[in-house]
Amino acid sequence: MVDDIILETRGLRRDFGGVQALRGVNLQVHRTSITGLIGPNGSGKTTLFQVVSGMDRGGNGKVLFNDQPILGLRPWQIYRLGLARTFQLSRVFPGLTVLQNLLVAGRPGDRGARKRALGLIGRVKLCEHVNALGSELSYGQQRLVEFLRVLMCNPALILLDEPAAGVNPTLRHILWELVRHINGLGTSVLIIEHNMNVIADLCDPVYVLNEGEIIAQGDFDTVRADPRVLEAYFGRTQRSGGTTS
Amino acid sequence: MDLLQPAILLQLAIGGLLAGALYALLASGLNLVFGVMRVINLAHGELMIAGAFLAWLLYSLLGLHPLLALPVAMVVLYILGFYLQRLLIERIVGRDELTSLLVTYGLSIILMNVGLLVFSADFRAVPALQGAVYLEDLDLVLSKPRAVAGIVSIVLTAGVYWFLKHSRTGKAIRAVSEHAEVAMICGIDVTRIRMVTFGLAAAMAGAAGVMLTTIYSFSPETGADFVLKCFAIIVIGGMGNFVGALLGGLLLGLAEAFVSGFLSTQWAEAVAYLLLVLVLILRPAGLLGKADAA
User: Fold this and answer.
1) Distances, alpha carbon A203 to alpha carbons A183, A195, B6, B57, in Å
2) Measuring CA to CA, which residue among B290, B198, B288, B294 is closest to residue B245?
3) Can you tell me the distance from the alpha carbon of B291 to that of B279, in angstroms, rounded to the nearest whole number?
4) Helices B190-215 and B66-87: crossing angle, nearest 10°?
5) Which of A104, A133, A152, A159 to mutate to probe the B interface, most B CBs <10 Å?
6) Pick from B174, B177, B187: which is nearest to A76 by CB?
7) Do the Cβ atoms of B174 and A95 come within 8 Å?
8) Beta carbons of B182 and A103 less than 8 Å apart
9) Does domain B6-282 bear CATH number 3.40.50?
10) Each residue of A110-145: pLDDT tens digit?
11) A160 phi and psi, to 5 degrees?
12) Which class for B250: exposed (0-12), middle (13-18), buried (19 or more C-beta within 10 A)?
């Protein structure tokens, strides 16, 4: 693997009984890139995140993070290597305060964790909620806290699973600004997102997953024009020129 | 004698709170394990008795005072609990309740029978703390062993509460208790945290056992009575809720004291279960529990 690549999957497969959720996925995330992962519902995007992050240890193939094979490692080991992720549905710790939610994700022995946590909380304007319990936050605020939490280990790569889903436009703006900011500081991002404007605006390259296979990759305009992508999203093109879904 | 005299009521209340503190210490450990692993450890009472026998041995063989045996028993029980989790309990985490009940019940039978083989069924006690103190201003008689056991229990339970609330490991335990899956992706070694939790709960049970030796006589079979009461306490307080177990323990101690005073000690034995039924009818999730936890 060349040094420029921070994450690579080679022939990654995941079967659930007779269902092949991932069918030999080959994907590369370049260092300091914001890489997009799109595809119709059920195409295997979240399964890919589950396998790469160690939450699902039933995958076969190869996953290299910073040249190191990580398939089979436990999630906390992968996190400590510098690969963090968020979930599709917000999952903060409801009984911990906002500050504690962040501190719990800090690296052991990190003396600067509290300062960094407060800095992150301030950056997304949640200062007045610093001692509020996770359960007391709005859904959008919970998503922000979840996002801040993955930043606590200074990750080299973060996997964001639809981070803006269910978030109001104001908080969404803060979120995307933060993604740009941390990317600017050198953190690579692999992001699943359904909003194509966001993908077009943020991501390069973009991978398209359909039925467990990568069917297209490249910049947004390239994949948007790819007939296989159109077919995956809108159904097979008829000879008459119409579409079925 | 008029039982409604303030001095007698105060006497009963203080006695009840001190006994309740010991219950709370024991029940908090059971509740901690349930909160983090969703496992009801029916062997918790036997771990308490292991602590009691350790204190008895140290007193009989070395003349060690129970208060000095306390840290020794806690360390030994912590290590025992830590590895019990690793070797046995970890295998049943995430399985259905029946599996965990059967496995921990089996463990309790094994521990009890090992105790019977080694120590026989004879009752023993550690007569290191005896007598009573009369507080003239309050017109109150305090049994020394009960007062010491109560105060030690309060200090230890408060210490564990502080540890859970403020230490890094304590926060990790709470995180695992709330969302084990999310805790994993926050860099928390969930398996190790479960081992620490079970060790901590076993240490609390061991400490309760050491204190028990100064108040009651005990045999290897005594643990079963206590674990049933503890189970009632954590249901009363709210399963998985640490503060709920404290409240439940103190409430049971008070209720037993007043029922003993006003009715009889036989009725006092039934109080835990009467309270349990009452709470399940009026507030099924327990006093501090949430509906989904129930």
Assistant:
1) 11, 12, 75, 69
2) B288
3) 13
4) 150
5) A104
6) B187
7) yes
8) no
9) no
10) 788 899 999 999 988 889 999 999 999 998 899 899
11) -110, 120
12) buried
Candidate from B177, B182, B184 with C-beta closest to A74: B184
Domain locations along chain B: 6-282
d(CA A107, CA A76): 11
B190 interface with A at CB cutoff 8 Å = yes
Residues 116-145 of A with CB under 8 A from B: none
Residue B45's nearest CA partner among B293, B266, B188, B232 is: B232
Query: What tokens does B278 get?
Result: 């009452």
Nearest C-alpha of chain B: how many angstroms from A131? 13
Q: Do B182 and A84 touch (CB under 8 A)?
A: no
Is the overall model pTM greater than 0.80, yes or no? yes
Query: A5-89+155-234: CATH homologous superfamily?
Result: P-loop containing nucleotide triphosphate hydrolases (3.40.50.300)
What sign for the dihedral angle of Cα B23, B24, B29, B30?
Answer: positive
- Is B79 part of the contact surface with chain A (CB cutoff 8 Å)? no
- What's the ipTM? 0.81
Q: Please indicate whether, in this complex, the C-beta atoms of B189 and A74 are within 8 angstroms of each other.
A: yes
**A24 SS3 class:** strand
pLDDT digits (tens, 9 = 90+) for B74-121: 999 999 999 999 999 999 998 888 999 999 999 999 999 999 999 999
